[in-house]
Design brief:
With about 260 residues, this protein is of the alpha/beta class. It has one domain: TIM Barrel, CATH 3.20.20. It has 10 helices and 10 strands. It has an 8-stranded parallel beta barrel, surrounded by 7 helices. Helix 3 packs parallel to helix 4 and helix 4 packs across helix 5. The longest helix is centred in the last third of the chain and has 21 residues. It is globular, with a radius of gyration of 18 Å. The protein starts with a strand and ends with a helix.
Length: about 260
């Protein structure tokens, strides 16, 4: 299935928004665009939701025909247990994770121990943790970590665009991670020359216009056959105003979903 997430509405629920979108509004927008999945990713307000609010959010998603997923940073035992509780309340079967947080960068051996503590409960609940590829942890180390833990409930959230910042070739990242993928973040990217032609800027691009080899990623991962959801994200730079930025954000959402649907035929 294909869908959107909180990063697809990044500016519209940010502090720059005159009236920030809440989760129900993002879910309704997702349904209106014809998507089937919504990933609540790195969205701090979810941590303060009451049981009633979680129940109501799941009920809305069910009414709209949307499958929910979660996403967070950090792998401490208590933190992952809390997100398992949230996943169970929301019916989410995937929790996208990241090993590091700004306050904690565990070694690989520490990360292995932490995940081994958390994963039995995830296995019993049928929920998967999908650790994302990103520049702070090489794809080699990430694969080694997943292999060392060896749990059917631990996989990788593949987003090759993130690894470019660590000078990893996106094709190499795709090849290395493909057997372990449990979730896909679909985000195109491009380099542009900075003013005066001094250096480059790495930023987002509308799907199909940048450097992401989407067709290659699909062949390598084969998400439809493996039941792996594809979640659209953006690196959309701030434009001149909120009005212009939000309009472009919504345009990218619509066009990128259309791109995925065309390439799923």
């Amino acid at each position: 299935m294909i869908g959107l997430g909180t990063y697809a509405f990044f500016w519209q629920h940010s502090k720059r928004a005159p009236q920030a979108l809440d989760l129900p509004a993002m879910l309704r927008n997702t349904r209106e665009l014809g998507a089937e999945v919504f990933q609540i990713c790195d969205y701090l307000p979810i941590l303060s939701y009451s049981e009633v609010q979680l129940h109501d959010l799941k009920a809305l998603a069910d009414d709209l025909g949307i499958v929910l997923e979660l996403g967070t940073k950090g792998i401490s035992t208590e933190h992952l247990a809390n997100f398992l509780r949230l996943a169970q309340a929301l019916g989410a079967k995937v929790v996208r994770g990241m090993v590091n947080t700004p306050d904690h960068r565990p070694t690989l051996s520490e990360a292995e121990a932490l995940l081994k503590q958390a994963l039995p409960a995830y296995e019993a609940s049928g929920v998967k943790i999908a650790l994302e590829t990103y520049e702070q942890l090489s794809s080699r180390d990430l694969v080694s970590l997943v292999e060392a833990v060896g749990s059917p409930s631990l996989g990788i959230c593949l987003d090759p665009a993130n690894c470019v910042a660590a000078l990893e070739n996106p094709i190499d990242v795709i090849d290395r991670c493909a057997p372990y993928v449990a979730n896909l973040h679909v985000k195109d990217f491009a380099f542009t020359r900075r003013g005066g032609w001094v250096g480059f800027t790495l930023e987002g691009a509308e799907l199909g216009t940048g450097l992401l080899d989407y067709d290659y990623m699909m062949k390598a991962v084969n998400p439809e056959a493996r039941g792996i959801n594809r979640v659209i994200e953006h690196w959309l730079p701030w434009q001149d105003s909120f009005e212009v930025t939000s309009r472009l954000e919504n345009l990218w959402n619509a066009n990128n979903l259309a791109y995925l649907k065309r390439h799923s035929a």
